[in-house]
Task: inverse folding
């Protein structure tokens, strides 16, 4: 059983902690427990319930009305919402609920069905990427058991690899890219996603994987001379020095552009050195790849 903080609930639902506290006082659908130091925490069932309640509330249902619904009523109302964005949020919520319950068969079945209906690329954009964005904070803060993270990450990883192997672009561009994660970075899903997008657009990819020393990257760059280098930084180790990484990359890669996306790039606020380009959102990543074609 996981223990979620009120901040976790806020991050997952976009409902402010202050509002959640008011709901607890006025209604009876949330009954958090408290630690010995009087800090609220919520179990799996409460997390799943608040995800559903937040979705209904966001799309027009009054919280006082929701409070009178039983679980079956809530599920029925969620399924009745026709808004496409609500349906996408529901899909992500279902993956989160399957993950916290360790329902791996259910988690994989949901992905398989989405891929069957939407195809791999739309599933990546609309479901997998959104799931990773929502749940990423819990992974980083350790509020999800590492075993849960590894299990669901491996399922997603398998789907991304299968989708990438099936890529058969109509045109193959005379461009190449080297993909890697630096030492201390093991969160590979974002980089696998980038690999899929590039290969599906006909760009040759050299994939080095996770936890790669810069001297190894430099070695491949000198021998293969890719048009650009790409890394996706999600949650590096506490020993990782971002400024040092940028400076060493500038010295080693000798004019080859370095593209950086991911959570660390999105939060970086200092001046970006020349030759290094940050993509701070999925939209910016898409625009960059479109401009390559």
Result:
């Amino acid at each position: 059983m996981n223990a979620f903080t009120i901040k976790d609930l806020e991050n997952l639902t976009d409902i402010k902690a202050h509002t959640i506290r008011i709901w607890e006082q006025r209604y009876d659908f949330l009954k958090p427990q408290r630690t010995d130091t009087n800090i609220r925490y919520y179990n799996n069932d409460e997390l799943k319930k608040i995800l559903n309640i937040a979705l209904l509330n966001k799309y027009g249902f009054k919280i006082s009305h929701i409070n009178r619904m039983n679980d079956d009523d809530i599920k029925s109302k969620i399924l009745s919402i026709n808004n496409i964005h609500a349906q996408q949020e529901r899909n992500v919520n279902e993956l989160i609920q399957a993950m916290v319950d360790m329902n791996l068969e259910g988690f994989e079945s949901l992905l398989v069905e989405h891929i069957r209906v939407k195809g791999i690329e739309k599933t990546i954009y609309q479901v997998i990427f959104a799931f990773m964005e929502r749940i990423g904070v819990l992974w980083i803060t350790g509020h999800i058991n590492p075993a849960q993270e590894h299990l669901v990450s491996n399922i997603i990883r398998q789907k991304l690899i299968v989708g990438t192997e099936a890529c058969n672009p109509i045109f193959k561009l005379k461009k190449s890219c080297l993909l890697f994660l630096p030492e201390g970075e093991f969160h590979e899903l974002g980089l696998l996603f980038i690999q899929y997008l590039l290969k599906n657009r006909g760009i040759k990819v050299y994939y080095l994987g996770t936890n790669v020393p810069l001297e190894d990257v430099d070695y491949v760059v000198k021998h293969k001379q890719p048009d650009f280098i790409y890394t996706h930084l999600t949650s590096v180790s506490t020993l990782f020095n971002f400024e040092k990484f940028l400076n060493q990359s500038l010295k080693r890669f000798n004019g080859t552009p370095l593209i950086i996306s991911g959570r660390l790039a999105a939060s970086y606020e200092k001046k970006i050195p020349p030759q290094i380009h940050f993509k701070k959102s999925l939209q910016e990543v898409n625009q960059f790849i479109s401009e390559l074609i």
Q: What stands out?
A: The chain has a mean pLDDT of 89. The first helix runs from residue 6 to 13. The chain is about 60% helix and 10% strand.
